[in-house]
Amino acid sequence: MKKAILVIVAIMLVASIVGCSKAETKTDANVVKFGVFEPLTGANAAGGAEELDGVRLAQELYPTVTVGGKEYKIELAIADNKSDKVEAANAGQRLVDSDKVQVVLGSWGSGLSMAAGPVFKDAKIPAIGLSCTNPLVTKDNPFYFRVCFLDPFQGTVMANYAFKDVKARKAVIIREVSNDYSVGLAKFFADSFKSLTGDQGAILAELNYNTNDQDFSAQLTQVKSLKPDVIFAPGNYTESALIIKQARELGITAPFLGGDTWEIAEFINVGKQAVEGAVMSAFFDNDAPLTPLSKVFVESYQKKYGKLPSGTAVLGFDGYLLAIDAIKRADSVDPLKIRDAIAATKDFAGAAGYVTLDANGDPIKSAVIKEVKGGKFVFKTTVAP
Amino acid sequence: MELSTFFQQLTNALSLGSLYALIAIGYTMVYGILRLINFAHGDVFMLGAYFAFYAATSLAMPWWVAFIVAIGLTAIFGMGLERVAYRPLRDSPKISVMISAIGASFLIENVGIVVFGGRPKSFPSIPLFDTVLHLGPVSVLSVSLFIPVITAAILVALLWIVNGTKTGLAMRAVSTDLDAARLMAIDVNRTISLTFGIGSLLAGLGGIMWTMKYPQLNPLMGVMPGLKCFIAAVIGGIGNIPGAVLGGFLLGVLEIMIVAFLPELTGYRDAFAFVLLIVVLLVKPSGLLGKHQAVKV
After folding, report:
1. Calpha distance B115→B219 (Å, rounded)
2. Helix A45-61 vs helix A237-249: angle between axes, to the nearest 10 degrees?
């Protein structure tokens, strides 16, 4: 018995040494590794899947990058952060330690990005946020960048819409209290809406719920008694769809407004008839090309996946391209040099518009407003910053 | 608070509570007979919902056929789970079985993620359950009226099975002393299998009813309801079937009332349920209706 254990231990030791040397040889071949840091399971899974689709499409179209006359193959290391902040930090650590990636792309969900931000910062690996819109993602983190607009802008856009288009004067906010994105966006909306109406009491109530909650009847019964003109409910698409469904069941007729996280097929699948008329801000519209690449993206996406792109897939595509662009400009696969090149990004043409990063690592981009009509996300208007 | 709002909140509370009660019954039944906390109960609940979903969508069965098929499959799955994960450990310490149950729970969740995918699915709408009824100022989804009726029917049926049939007598005998039961020529394996079958059937039914009310499926959907219903079962006195119903209603009412009367504490709604569990375990570990049992050593 003892002997058997010794033999097993010996085999494991040998295996681990062989395993290590294998990993070493793998990295110094002509390969550059992009870590994809996304929620592929849990509450945000559909969001992560869309971005991964966008990244994969970009990889198919642009599988290599040339640095110093040498062609590097791009490999994706995919880490599932499980829609969970604790798991997110672990997944980030795994990308950095065992996958040894040069660049990280992701994540859908600002809270998840914020949880892993310090990991990337400590490891000095640049990360490109795809659709994480909370200002804190890139703030004080010289290694986190992004290719999407920010929540202060998004909150203002939706407050303007509520004030001018819905002609609302009293609003109720329902926010996902454990989600940094939702709490942040709710605050920016509230600030903007109060100043538009000139009424400090314009927000009748801010009600909370938790990620993964399924029953919102108690909160919504309160909303009903407050009789708001509009309800702003930024949050994850699944909970939001259930909220709207349950609100309609309770007889609440006020329109629902939300943020970029709503534009995903599951929002309509779960909410069905109830989410008709829901209005949200979004990043991109398939029929409103912003750069020559927009058409390339929409057409090749349709060819690869057999459906029209929606939601944040386009940002996955752009994040990947920005990483390649930065590697080319740095003419190096050294993460620090890639970081500096990303930081210096100016007028980069992605599929979802031009990206020029400011000192924080944030771009200024326009937002699109969409409405659910006939079971589809229908373009309403574009709002320039 | 206006009276109409109060009645609406009360309706919300009862409809959530009856759902908890329905799932808690299965939990408590398995514990009552086997002294095993089946931590995979929530995941069997999830499977029931997925089985119904695939039967109704991919196999295009009418909803009621899909429900029966799904409930049957869930029951068979539960018996299989007992055969594979619990029976081999029957003579081991209780803690081993419990750890095996936790392992089974994670296994089912993760296989679920691989097989069903992490993206949530949505149950097709069934008009019978998905109609909004207005009773005066109170609005209620029709499924919320069915659930308490189903819960009550199951409560009566189970009490009859356990206390009024020969099989129930065998279950009680197994619960009191497994070896003595075997000596009395009771087919212990069959009795335990049957207990798991019924427990899982209830989990499957609970899962289907849950998705009728909250029409969204994902492989981790059973985790929170599983824990909540465990709490409900403990509040009522784990092992006691009417206790589980009482505990389920109590938990539902308390959760809704916290949000209704103390909105600023909404974020702590789940935490509150767990605090309640701790308090019950400290103050009255046998639960509201449970009897204190001396354990032979």
Report:
1. 9
2. 140
Q: At what angle do helices B41-56 and B223-236 cross, to 10 degrees?
A: 130
User: Could you read off the pLDDT of A166-177 as tens digits, one per residue?
Assistant: 999 999 999 999
- The whole-model pTM stands at 0.86
Q: Using an 8 Å Cβ cutoff, are A234 and A258 in contact?
A: yes
| Residue bearing the bigger pLDDT, A336 or B290 | A336
Task: Examine residue B290 and state whether it is found in any structural domain, yes or no.
Answer: no
| A190 CA to centre of own chain | 22
Q: Tell me which DSSP letter residue A204 carries.
A: E
Work out how many domains chain B is built from and give that number. 1
Provide the pLDDT for residue B118.
84
- For residue B228, give both structure tokens: 């909540």
**What is the extent of the structural domain holding B107?**
3-283
How does residue B292 score in pLDDT terms, banded at 50, 70 and 90?
Answer: low
Name the DSSP class of B83.
I
Structure tokens at B7: 């009645």
CATH number (domain holding residue B157): 1.10.3470
Strands A31-38 vs A103-105: parallel, antiparallel or unpaired: parallel
Query: What part of A 219-258 touches B (C-beta under 8 Å)?
Result: 219, 221-222, 224-225, 238, 241-242, 245, 248-251
B295 domain residue, yes or no: no
Residue A12 has pLDDT above 60, yes or no: no
- Calculate Rg over the CA atoms of chain A: 22
Closest Cβ opposite residue B120 in set A219, A222, A266:
A266
B166 touches chain A (CB under 8 A): no
pLDDT of residue A372: 95
> Rounded to an integer, what distance in angstroms lies between the CA atom of residue A185 and that of residue A79?
27
For the residues A21-29, what does the mean pLDDT come to? 48
Q: What is the pLDDT of residues B37-94, one digit of tens each?
A: 889 999 999 999 999 999 999 999 999 999 999 999 999 999 999 999 999 998 888 8
Domains assigned to chain A: 25-149+289-365 (3.40.50.2300), 151-282 (3.40.50.2300)
**CA-based nearest distance A157→chain B, Å:** 27
